[in-house]
Every structure is written in structure tokens, then in C-alpha cells.
Amino acid sequence: MEARPKTRFPGSTKHSSNGKSGYTVLVPLQDLDLTKTLLPPAIRTAKRHDGKIILLNIIEIPYQLPPSEAKQFTLEREFKLQYARQIIETAGCDAEIMVRVAHRIPSAIEQLALSLDIDLIIIWAKNKGLLWNKEIYQKLYAVNSNLVVAKELVETHFEDVFIQVDDLQAASSMMEHATYLFGNEEGIIHMISEYSENDEKSTLRKVRSIVDGFHRQNPWFAGKTIIHQLEQKSAAREYLKDIYHKVTGSTGVLVSYPSGKRSRTDSWLAEVAKDLNLPVYILKIARIEPVGIDRIANQVQQWLGFASEQLKA
Fold first, then answer.
1. Helix (H) or strand (E) holding 55
2. What is the pTM (predicted TM-score) of this model?
3. Looking at residues 112-120, what average pLDDT do you find?
4. DSSP string spanning 141-187?
5. Where exactly does CATH 3.40.50.620 map onto the chain?
């Protein structure tokens, strides 16, 4: 894959993938049991972009206690993360351990992601409870990094990955992140694309063009992509169940974050996956930086907003 340069514009917090200039994957690791789920995709991503992995452990303390009260546990946490660091370095990637003391885990992850300009965050989250609630959803949605959320505690080495493409502009990025879930570079991507009765051929042409372009630009990927076009979601459930039962390899599902700031995270494909006991991963794609005239217009709007605030002050 060709390296893509960093871009930095006023008011932005994200850059595109970059290669040797510093692609960084952040893995919040509160429990070593998560290594089998989070480290495989993190290692594949870092190796693909010649980047590094930051292992983050957060010591959460009550608000009434100062951070200094928990400093004594820092070395203990660092020692525990050495096991994960060894796995990463054995795989040929650079790794760094960070232990932070904070009153709230979501805020700590957000602050670190912003300060270090993280490219990708890979995190595990229960459906309820630890690390998955409205607060962390809002915090990590606000950070302009790619975000992969594993919803089950499984080993991330799949042979087939189903992806639901609701936005064709995000299709290539979803395909790329799907490859990080494979156990090798010969997996099969099952792309689920919806169409209306009036635009079946048009949508199919667009999807095929995106798929062909992805494979041309990523010759390292020796796998294949199968396009499944569905007109009605009601029929999709039985169709997908039928496909799944014909798949012989281990299978995962990648769905996209909903647009906007809703707290709902499941999709109809995720619901089907739940019925089939398939592991689900949720992807939030970083916002694409505007270019050309759009970038100039965006800059002008930001400058006018800044000037307006100064006049009010």
C-alpha cells in the first residue's frame, strides 16, 4: 500500500494514513484477556503502515482522590503490559506502554488520542457496562480517529468478513479495515450493498468500480471480494443466514457507526450476526479532510468564526 501524507488544517484533529512518518495505533488494554481480540488487528494495521502500537492502561480513581494516590500502582500495571508488548515486538512492530491515572476512562482516552494525534483506536466494549456507555460513545465519536470496537471477546483471525456498506464513499475504508480482521492476506470480504428497485444497475456499477479500485490499489491483498446486493432488509436476514451456512471458515462481521451522534450502535446486519453467534466489530471512519476549494472555504469559515468570537469578547 502506498503511504499517504499527513495533512493538517486549522481546526482539524486528524490526518490521513502516513507510513513511516508516524502511523499510530492506540490499544486501551485494561485486561490481558483482551490481547487475543485487540492485538491481531492492531499488529496487522501497524505493519501495513509501518507504524507503532501504544498500549494504554488507565488506573481509574474516584474524584475525591488526587492522581498522586494511584502512582504506586503504575509500575505494577506497566509490568503486566510487558506480556502484550512482547507479543507485538515478536511480530515485528514497535510498541510503547503508557499507564495513566484518571478519574474517567473515556476522558483519558479522548485526551491521549487528541494529544498524540492517533490514527486508529482499537478497543473492546461490552454491550453494557465497562467501557461502553453513552459517555465513551460521545468522547470517542468526537475524536477524529478511525475507531474499531470489538463487541465480543474472541480471537481476531477470520477467513470471511461480512461488511455492511450504507455509504459508498466509506466502502474502500471499510474494506481496508476488514482486511485487518483476517488471519492472513487471502480472506474473503462479503460486501452487503442495498439498492432500490430503480437504481439496481447503477448501484452495482458503482460498487464494482469501488471493489476493483480497492484491489488495484492494494495488491498485497490476495483475497477476494464477493458483492451481495439486497433490495429488502426483511429478505436479507434469511439470505445472509443461507450464505453463512455455506461459509466454511471462521467468520466475523464489520458494521459502521451510525451517522450523527445517536447512541445506537447496532445495525440490522449486527442483529443477524447476533442470531448466528458471530462476533461483531464496529467501525467509525475518521472524517476525510477537505481538499481544494472545499478546504479553502472551510478555512475561511473557521477564520470568520474566530474573528466573530474575538469581536464579541
1. strand 52-60
2. 0.78
3. 89
4. HHS-SEEEEE-S-----BSEEEEEES-GGGHHHHHHHHHTTBSSS--
5. 19-150, 160-282
Of 171, 169, 125, which Cα lies nearest the Cα of 149?
Answer: 125
- Residue 179 CA to residue 85 CA, distance in Å, equals 23
Beta strands 120-124 and 24-28 are parallel
CA–CA separation, 190 and 161 (whole Å): 6
Q: Which contacts of 86-92 are long-range, i.e. CB under 8 A and separated by 24 or more positions?
A: 87/35, 87/39, 87/43, 88/39, 88/42, 88/43, 88/46, 88/53, 88/55, 91/43, 91/47, 92/47
The C-alpha cell of 150 is what? 470489538
Place of cell 451481495: 228
CATH code, 19-150: 3.40.50.620
Q: Does the domain spanning 160-282 belong to CATH 3.30.365.10?
A: no
Note the pLDDT tens digit of each residue in 211-257: 999 999 999 999 999 998 776 555 667 777 788 777 877 899 998 87
